[in-house]
Amino acid sequence: MSYSLLSRTLAKSRKEHQCIWCCHQILTGSHYVREISTYDGHFQNFAWHEACRKDADQYFVESGAEEFTSGNEMPFHALYELEASL
Ligand SMILES: [Zn+2]
């Protein structure tokens, strides 16, 4: 297994993206993490909520895992729902 991070940037979303971690939408106008990487030679281009990226980092450190599956619990989900409903 080989993972290499090519770039990780904080961007402002101009359209809705789907977070790779929690599968919820990233709201237009909010900041999100854009991560471009390769995994076993496959090109990956992921969008993350900032909080989800932090959770993922913690997950990788604590579990020692190299992979993850989408559909994780979103941190601060109540806050997100509030924001999404505006
Ligand atoms: Zn997320």
UniProtKB/TrEMBL annotation:
It comes from Rhizobium meliloti. It comes from the Bacteria. This is Uncharacterized protein.
